[in-house]
Amino acid sequence: MRSVYETVAGFDLATLYEYIDEDLNQSIEDKVYNLVKQIASFRNKPKT
């Protein structure tokens, strides 16, 4: 999970330095949020 947050931080810097626009950054963050929820759900799933 840590690498996901590091990647988002990289996109935040890209937005700060105007390599990408805020709309694209927000879209990326929304997708990352959903991905993190899926990963957490998978990791917390009971093992059988």
Tell me the Rg in angstroms. 13 Å
**SSE string, helices as H and strands as E:** HH
The percent range for strand residues is under 5%
Quaternary structure annotation = single chain
Alpha-carbon distance between the termini? Answer: 24 Å
Q: What gross morphology would you assign? A: elongated
Number of strands: 0
Instruction: Indicate how many domains the architecture comprises.
Output: 1
Helix proportion range = over 70%
Mean of pLDDT: 93
> How many helices in DSSP terms?
2
Structure write-up:
It is a single chain. This protein is mainly α and 48 residues long. The protein has one domain. Helix content is 79%, strand content 0%. The chain has helices at residues 2-16, 22-44.
Structure characteristics:
48 residues, mainly alpha
Detail the topology: elements first, then pairings:
Blueprint: H1 2-16, H2 22-44
Helix pairs in contact: 1-2
How is this structure best summarized?
The protein has 48 residues and is mainly α. Helices cover 79% and strands 0% of the residues.
